């Protein structure tokens, strides 16, 4: 497996995988259909490539004989509480047929390697409570909970 820099030619793969994988992160608290979540994700992705270019974010793609997953890294962010510079993993996804094969781990390691090489001392990400599979991987790789996002359904 190689992890390489992504290009605009990877965008159709990234879009398709983003739509496929979003259902694993949907919160049951919101009580919306998978169709709704996928349609909303499709809308948000419509301008995402332009944002990636404007923000000079980095894209990493895992592939062997075919693309297996991707990670989008914004390395020019700051922590909202301390103002300290940090990088942020905007999105990461692995095709289901490659789950538990080390693809997500390799993508995360590549992001960490990039950050270290560029003297970025903190790397953050967000994961929904519903996505326990991803949360376990992140914890195993040393990511710790720093904040909690809480929501209350109002009747």
How is this structure best described in words?
With 155 residues, this protein is an alpha+beta fold. The protein has one domain (2-140): Aminopeptidase. 35% of the residues lie in helices and 22% in strands. It has helices at residues 11-21, 34-45, 48-55, 103-117, 132-140; strands spanning 2-5, 58-63, 67-78, 85-94, 123-124. The chain has a five-stranded mixed beta sheet with strand order 1-2-3-4-5. Helix 1 (11-21) packs antiparallel against helix 2. The protein starts with a strand and ends in a 15-residue tail after the last helix. The model has no long low-confidence stretch (mean pLDDT 93).
CATH superfamily: Gcn5-related N-acetyltransferase (GNAT)
In angstroms, what is the radius of gyration? 16 Å
- Secondary-structure element order, N to C: EHHHEEEHEH
Q: How many β strands by DSSP? A: 5
Question: How are strands sequenced across the largest beta sheet?
Answer: 1-2-3-4-5
Major sheet description: 5 strands, mixed
The percent range for strand residues is 15-25%
Distance between the termini: 49 Å
List the helices and strands and how they pair.
Layout: E1 2-5, H1 11-21, H2 34-45, H3 48-55, E2 58-63, E3 67-78, E4 85-94, H4 103-117, E5 123-124, H5 132-140
Parallel strand pairs: 4-5
Antiparallel strand pairs: 1-2, 2-3, 3-4
Features:
22% strand; Aminopeptidase; 5 helices; alpha+beta; globular; five-stranded mixed β-sheet; 155 residues
What's a quick, concise take on this entry?
The protein has 155 residues and is α+β, with helices and mostly antiparallel strands.
């Amino acid at each position: 497996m190689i992890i390489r820099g992504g290009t605009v030619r990877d965008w159709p793969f990234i879009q398709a995988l983003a739509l496929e994988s979003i259902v694993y992160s949907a919160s049951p608290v919101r009580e919306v259909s998978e169709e709704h979540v996928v349609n909303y994700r499709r809308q948000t992705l419509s301008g995402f490539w332009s944002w990636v270019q404007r923000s000079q974010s980095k894209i990493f793609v895992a592939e062997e004989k075919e693309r297996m997953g991707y990670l989008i890294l914004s390395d020019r962010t700051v922590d909202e509480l301390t103002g300290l510079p940090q990088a942020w993993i905007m999105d990461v996804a692995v095709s289901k047929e490659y789950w538990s094969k080390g693809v997500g781990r390799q993508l995360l390691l590549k992001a960490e390697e990039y950050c270290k090489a560029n003297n970025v001392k903190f790397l953050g990400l967000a994961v929904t409570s519903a996505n326990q599979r991803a949360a376990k991987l992140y914890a195993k790789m040393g990511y710790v909970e720093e904040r909690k996002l809480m929501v209350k359904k109002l009747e």
